[in-house]
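ok so i was messing around last nite and threw this chain in just to see what happens. nothing serious, just curious
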Amino acid sequence: MFSFWSLLAVFICCAPSTFALSVDRTHPSALSVIVEEEDDDQEALLAPGPPYAPKDQTTFNRDFGKSFDDAHAEHATKMSGREEARTIANYREKRTVNVVISIRDGADLPKFCEPIMRGDWGEHVTLSIYVKNDGIKFGEMTVIPSGIHEMIQIPNIGRNEHAYAVHLARKAPNFSDVEILTKTNVIHDDPERMEHMVKYMVDVAQNGTYESVSFPWAMDRRYLNVRCDPAWSHHPLYQDFCEGDRNAKGGLIKTANYKDGNVPLVMMRQPSLVEDLPPDFSFALRTLRQPLPLVHETYGEGMLVLRRDVLKQFPADWYLEFKKLMYEAAAVKGTSTNTHDTDYDKAYSRSDVKHHDDAMMSILPLVFSRATPLEEDFPAWLVAPSTVDLFDTVDNVRKFYTPGTPPAGDCPLFALSDPGCECPSGALWWFYKLGHCHCGLASQPDVKGWRRVKVDGQRYFTVPGRLVEDENPGKEAGDQGGAAAAADAANIIPSAPAAV
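result:
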């Protein structure tokens, strides 16, 4: 594998770690595979929860379907006008595109960096690599330019949204024509597929007509972010989503209006008052026209393609303040990408995990959703460009992954006798994922942050374990993990979503 540094990234799902894991192949669990919801590179808890249960299913089906169709029809009309205007403008110059990633110090670069650094994708495509380094103090950075790419050493604080904030503050107002903020998790498990996705993002950036695009990453998971501002009380979905003791906490919604009901939408309740958010997010959303949309339909995996006119709506000092607020909060909490909680009750509930999830699923896709003046009102249902134009069919998503086959998140199970992970009493097996180990239990644990999974058709629960290094590191685990991943795949529960 192409490497810019000498050490192998340890946060890759199911990749061989720096310690050996000897698998007893006579043990049944060694041939099983656990499949979880695809997580982010720091074990963010993104499980969408149970199906959404409306107060009255028939009324909700009607109102939801009509609202969905009306919002998409309005979006299609707007996009048609922009396409015509863009054609008349007839851009003559090739757009400059800059791809932005963040990694840990000592980690391998993802494979898609190779063609960019070689110039295979064109001289107009550049790369900014933000390296999180424990030796860099808060408020400092070191920039090392090298032709078509640059490496920027930054403090090892926070997650990739912190690197995004640094980049935007560095570049404002001199952005490339298009800035691509992308990710590196699960890249090494399926490099060809991920390179295909990033190349597609570059092509869209150079040839598309979109102000901004939020892309899926490892799965087709589209979010409906709901904000219950009373200004939308007249909307037919407001009562069901926002009133009474149900309070629209979230859930999966299936509707024939979206991909023939084959793929659920993930409804997530967001705070309606920006004052209830952390200072950095509150600052960002206060800039936007109020009220914010009742429903914001978007992908929320932290994969954003942003045109310069979207970014230049905000002055340079806005980006500096956004970065300052984000880093101040992270520095106070003492979070970093090297944080490894061993407390079973806290590992999935850290504030930095929630901050990361909120940034990717809710805040950044909305703040950078359009290039229109900030004085323009939001519609009740805001449709992100990519949801209709790029990934609105199952076939369009299947270009990048094949549902039903073991995805990059599949991990082999190991017996408790195998070295590498210390588990709580009552654990049955463990598995390695994204730099952490996790322990399987037969019954629901009395701690927060557990996950419900299915292995060989049987339900289990998982909690974080304590990672233990082996005295004799080797690559046997990686070899056997590949064989195990080819075994029968298990699926994460949830129950069947409500049909709309």
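not much to say yet. The longest helix spans residues 57-89.
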